[in-house]
Amino acid sequence: MSAVPAESVETPEPAWRQRAVERSTRAAKLRAEQRVQRFLDAAQELIADKGTTDFTVQEVVERSRQSLRSFYQHFDGKHELLLALFEDALSKSAAAIREQVAAGQDPLERLKLAVELLYDSSRPREGRQSPLFTDFAVQLLVSHPEQVASAHLPLLDFFTEMVEEAVETGQAVAPKPRRTASLIMQTAMFTAQAPSARVGAHPSPITVEEVWAFCLGGISGGPVSDGTPATAPTVKKTAAKTGAKKKASAKKSASATTAARKTGAAASPPRRG
């Protein structure tokens, strides 16, 4: 009788080996993250120094004190580095806005504050170049629209949540909350980037108050009779009036139907047996 098993039995990997591999993987991942961050920091410093994204990959490599080989191990080229800066800035912006509006109780007030914060973070400031909205942001939007859309997801998710909450409480009307949130975001961001909106021959900057009034008008059922944006109570009152009118119309229709039946019955001659 043979002592050799019919099928080979796999020996489980020793626990120490698993721990060693995991430790090695974690260390390699940490080193890679640190190298990437140094490239991002170097690019951000160059943007701040030059006031533009007109720099070369070699300048980034030299500023980061790393090798060109290491750069291309992590990025396909300059455009991917800029995209990383853009995505990182949007992620940080979304986290900061979420934190600052968390204390608010009223959904519409929270949305208003979020719009104001996004507008403020999007405004160009003298002597400061933010990776969120420099000249390359528009370039990326044209050349890499899918990646840019993906970078906006954290911010879009948060604004969608706030729009949905406003709809649930009856403070807003938005059949498609996510599209509405996207429109609000784009209105705040791109309006803030424009130096001014010309009225005739004179520049007249669009204020954050005007941006919010415009957005509010879009989600609250439109302007009221005097031209001012409809407020949350206006939405509720309008809905209540509409409901009351529908009920009154239905009641009137039912009464008319009943009366017609009675009239018809009175006008009909009695049947003979």
Q: Name the CATH homologous superfamily of the domain at 76-247.
A: Tetracycline Repressor, domain 2
Unreliable segments (pLDDT under 50, ≥5 consecutive)?
A: 223-246
Mean pLDDT: 77
Record the strand order, biggest sheet. Answer: 1-2
- Approximate helicity band: 55-70%
The succession of helices and strands, N to C, reads HHHHHHHHHEEHH
Structure classification: mainly alpha
The rough form would be described as flat
- In angstroms, what is the radius of gyration? 31 Å
Q: Under CATH, the topology of the domain at 76-247 is which?
A: Tetracycline Repressor, domain 2
CATH architect. name of the domain at 76-247 = Orthogonal Bundle
Number of strands: 2
Determine the number of helices (DSSP H or I, runs of at least 4 residues).
11
Distance between the termini: 108 Å
Q: Summary?
A:
This protein has about 270 residues and is an all-alpha fold.
Would you kindly provide a written description of the structure presented here, covering whatever features stand out?
It contains eleven helices and two strands, in the order H-H-H-H-H-H-H-H-H-E-E-H-H. It is mostly helical and 273 residues long. It has a domain at 76-247: Tetracycline Repressor, domain 2 (Orthogonal Bundle). It has a two-stranded antiparallel ribbon with strand order 1-2. The longest helix has 36 residues, at 15-50. It is flat, with a radius of gyration of 31 Å. Residues 223-246 have low confidence and may be disordered.
Helix and strand arrangement:
Blueprint: H1 15-50, H2 57-64, H3 68-74, H4 78-101, H5 107-122, H6 135-143, H7 145-151, H8 153-168, H9 177-193, E1 197-199, E2 202-204, H10 208-219, H11 232-267
Antiparallel strand pairs: 1-2
